[in-house]
Amino acid sequence: MLSNTEKELIVQIWDKMIPVAEDIGSEALLRMFTTFPKTKTYFSHLDISPRSAHLLCHGKKIVQALAEGARNISTLTTTLAPLSRFHAYQLRIHPTNFKLFNHCILVTLACHMGENFTPVAHAAIDKFLSAFSAVLAEKFR
Amino acid sequence: MVEWSDSERSTIASVWGKINVDEIGPQALARVLIVYPWTQRYFGAFGNLSSATHGRTVLNALDKAVKNLDNIKGTYSELSQLHCDKLNVDPDNFRLLADCLTIVVASAFGSALSPAVQATWQKFLSVVVAALSSRYF
Q: CA-CA to A118 of 20 to 30 Å: which in A104, B30, B57, B137?
């Protein structure tokens, strides 16, 4: 459950990430591949070496989707419907991986925001990411 | 048996060397209580003061793990029994504290917590969490 204050905080934070979407997204992905090597199995078709064109492009897409979700928190299911279908029917990622990636997003945000990544901000973003992943995994079965 | 490369050993020592135990411990525990409110069930009787103390206690215990990388499981055997038998803590919550600790370290270190350093640090914490969970039957 997100309060109105939390929803505003989430939008504020993600809006700041849009100009650096490539950096944030690719860093979160790289952190995930390094800390949880099994996640690389989903990316055998891409060059996921640090700062590769594929990684930057993919990272950017993810951050932009998250920012879009942040601006439409009350209608996540409708907003994310195409992405939800994509994750269910094409990507078919084991659902536990969402948590691993969400954690790496949080670490990336913490590294970049320093003390501005307060416990309240952390809680809000964690709840948002959980809700976002739940919608992405909705159609899995 | 957990294997540590020389590079992992020195990474862990280096990260640990930069951590201010008196600050980071309480910060991590305070964060767990806010981000995962159900963990407050273990601190209800104590109030705020004790969670700061416990934060320092946890980090001091981590020091033992850093100094005994090759036998973390043995080092934590009694602590594990304590958390299971006396404190009745659901071990799934250990992972939450480990994650919050990583995030507090990330806020403090910035880019010095590179992906490679994060991976090694998290490997270390997952061994600690497994050791703390090992005496639960």
A: B57
Number of cross-chain residue pairs from A and B with Cβ atoms under 8 Å apart: 53
Q: How many whole angstroms separate alpha carbon A21 and alpha carbon A14? A: 9
CATH topology of domain B6-133: Globin-like (1.10.490)
Asked if the model's pLDDT at residue B46 lies above 80, the reply is: no
How far is Cα A129 from Cα A69, in angstroms, rounded to an integer? 10
pTM for the structure as a whole = 0.88
Count the domains in chain A: 1
- Interface confidence: ipTM more than 0.85: no
Question: In chain B, whose CA is at the least distance from the CA of A103?
Answer: B99
pLDDT reading at B137 higher than 80:
no
Using a CB-CB cut-off of 8 Å, the residues of chain B touching A123 are: 34-35
Can you tell me the distance from the alpha carbon of A16 to that of B113, in angstroms, rounded to the nearest whole number? 21
What pLDDT was estimated at residue A112?
A: 97
- Show the domain range for A81: 4-140
Please identify among residues 76-115 of chain B the ones whose CB lies closer than 8 Å to any CB of chain A. Answer: 99, 102-104, 106-111, 113, 115
Sign of CA dihedral A141, A31, B116, A106: negative
